[in-house]
Structures are given as C-alpha cells and as structure tokens.
Amino acid sequence: MFVVAIMVGFFAAAQISSASTVPAFLWSPGFSSNELKESVHYQIMSPKDLANSVLSQGGWSDLLCSKRKLERPVDLAIVFVGRELHSSDVVGNKHVDPALLNLLKGSFTRSNFSMAFPYVATSEEETMENLLVSSFKEACGHGLGVSNVAFSESCSIEGGDFQKLANLHSINDHLVSRMEKRTKGETDLVVLCHGGFQSLKELDQPFPESEILKEVMSSVEQSGAKYAALYVSDPFKSIHYPGYKELERFLAEDTPKNASATAQVCDEVCKLKSSLLEGVLVGIVLLLILVSGLCCMMGIDTPTRFEAPQDN
C-alpha cells in the first residue's frame, strides 16, 4: 500500500507539473557547444533558468554576449515562441497538430547539437519572449553583443530599439538583407512569436503554427545562414487579458454619458422576476426561522402536568 501510494503521488505530481509547464527545444545543424550531441533536462525550471541553460550549456553565450567570440561563428540565433504545446502534449495528444511535433522531432534529431527541456514553468505576469530576452541581457552582464536584434510585431518585449517584422515576407527580406550586410563573425538575434502571421502562398488565410515554423526555417535555410534555433511554447498567453494600466485608461475614458447610453433597462418581465426572487429568498429565511424555533421548543424538556402541592 505504501509503494502504491508513492506511485500514485508521483503520477499525480507529474500530471500537475505537465499541465502547468511547457516544453522547449534547442538545436543547431552546424554548431555544437560540447561533445554531447543530444541531452534532455527533466527538471522543472523557470524561464530565467532556461535562458541560463541555453547560454551556458547550449553555447549561446558565445553568440549573444559581447565578450565572447566563436571560432566558427553562427550567423543567426532564432527564438520561436509558439502557442500550442504543453508538456503533456510531447508524449502524445490527439488534439495537438502532429505536423508540429514531427517538425520539432525532425529538427531535433537531424541537428549536430540538440537539447530538450520538457518542463518549463510559465509566468502569468510576463510573456515568455520578454522573460527570455531580459534574462539573456542580465546573464551577459553588459547587454546583448549581437549586431542586430529583430522581433515580430506579435511579440511583447519591453525596452530596446528593436527592428519589428510584420509578416513572413518581411522576415524573408530581413534574412536576405542581413546576409548581404552582415560582416564575418557577427551574429543576429531574431525573436518570432506565433500570431498575426499569414502564409506566403495565401496571404488572406492564417496558417497553423507548424506551417509558420516550417516556412520560417525554410527561409533561414534558403538564406544560407548558419543558425541555432530555440523553440519554446507559451500557450497561456494565447488569450490576452488587459493589464492594470489598460483598465485604468478604459475607466478614465468612460464617461457617465456613455455609461447611461449603453446601460440596459429592466423591463416588466425583469421586474417580475426580481420580485419573485425576493419573495423566494424571504420565504426561505422565514422557513429557516420556523424550523429553528420548532427545534428549540422540542429540545426543552418540560412536564405536561404538574402535581398539586401536598398539605402537611
């Protein structure tokens, strides 16, 4: 029974952790930071720990930090933040796009160097892309040492004068332009977030995440750039909730005139329902009082008859 209880506890903990964590994959076809070709880190880590592991164990400190240089430089470090995968989806889920899993699996296995992080905790206050970029800056100490930083308009990154990429056409043009202008030994950083992208073939129809990632990687390979890629999922940011400043601005702009114009009026049916509801609530309160009084009276042990006093 004790062993069964331990197994059930571990199973429940694994289910809870997989439900609240996301996977991350790091790979590079032509760059290897150490002798290990493939490695998997099963511990639960924060986005900051993920960034530190990518810099130290993944070798990105040689790419992003200003004081380090590579003997065989990588032209492009690309970060793709998806919106679909949870940690539990990696082991198998019928509701997940199999093309996305096959694409990540193929990129992971065919590369010279690859790392997997199945359990990365997400933050409810900041986006994954902002946490990663800020952690890269903090770990490097003197800011990012890359020659150019660009990110898609669907990303939410605070601070910095970064170049914004609107769609896949602009991403392709940016990669080709940087290959022509980049000097030898420099590395660019591109951060892409799924959302707002459209296919290069059909601009009026948005494509799933697998197609977007496939076209991005195809554009990178066609440009001839040596690259290292990091994929991390952040499905909890797929629904955007307004922050405190947005709500404060909305409340400040809302006037009593607009409120009175958009307010709903309670008609006769509404008034009838409210009156019936009030009557039901009052009846329930009176019934509770009656039941309480009867219980109190039944609990009093008083005789039904009293004997007459005897005269001495």
Automatic annotation (TrEMBL):
Keywords: Membrane, Signal, Transmembrane, Transmembrane helix. It is found in: Membrane. Residues 276-307 form the V-type proton ATPase subunit S1/VOA1 transmembrane domain. Residues 1-19 form the signal peptide. The chain crosses the membrane at residues 280-300. It holds the Pfam family Ac45-VOA1_TM. It is a single-pass membrane protein. The keyword Membrane applies. InterPro entries: VAS1/VOA1_TM. Its main location: membrane. It comes from the Eukaryota. This is V-type proton ATPase subunit S1/VOA1 transmembrane domain-containing protein.
